[in-house]
Amino acid sequence: MNEIAPRPHNSGHYSIEACDYSQFDTHILAVTGQLLPNSIELLKPAVMMNLLGKDLDLLENEFNEHPEWHLHIYGKSERKDSRKMGHMTVLTNDVNQTEQDMYAKFEGSN
Questions:
Q1: CATH (one of 3.90.1150.10, 3.30.470.20, 3.30.2130.30, 3.20.20.150) for 12-105
Q2: How far is CA 108 from CA 5, 45, 50, 62, 79, in A?
Q3: pLDDT (tens digit, 0 to 9) for every residue of the chain, 110 residues total?
């Protein structure tokens, strides 16, 4: 273990699309004293990748061709090639192939 994060964390962003409760849902339930679900179901396997400034042009050109891409752009005021500008979750039945495809498409930028 290298970090304990008592808050929503980048590593759980996939849960927004891939699970019946997202990490944000359960965080709100916990901090408001409500009951947490007994279990959280993975609805579909997913691959999540960070999006850097240099990735945004490719996304603009290809996003409409990929309904399985779920984009979350953070609205940062200044775009830099190496700055994290958002993340993307891809729902898939083949995680390994999707990881390879995304790595190739985005030239290993993540």
A1: 3.30.470.20
A2: 26, 21, 11, 17, 19
A3: 787 877 788 889 999 999 999 999 999 999 999 999 999 999 999 999 999 999 988 888 888 888 899 999 999 999 999 999 999 999 999 999 999 999 888 875 45
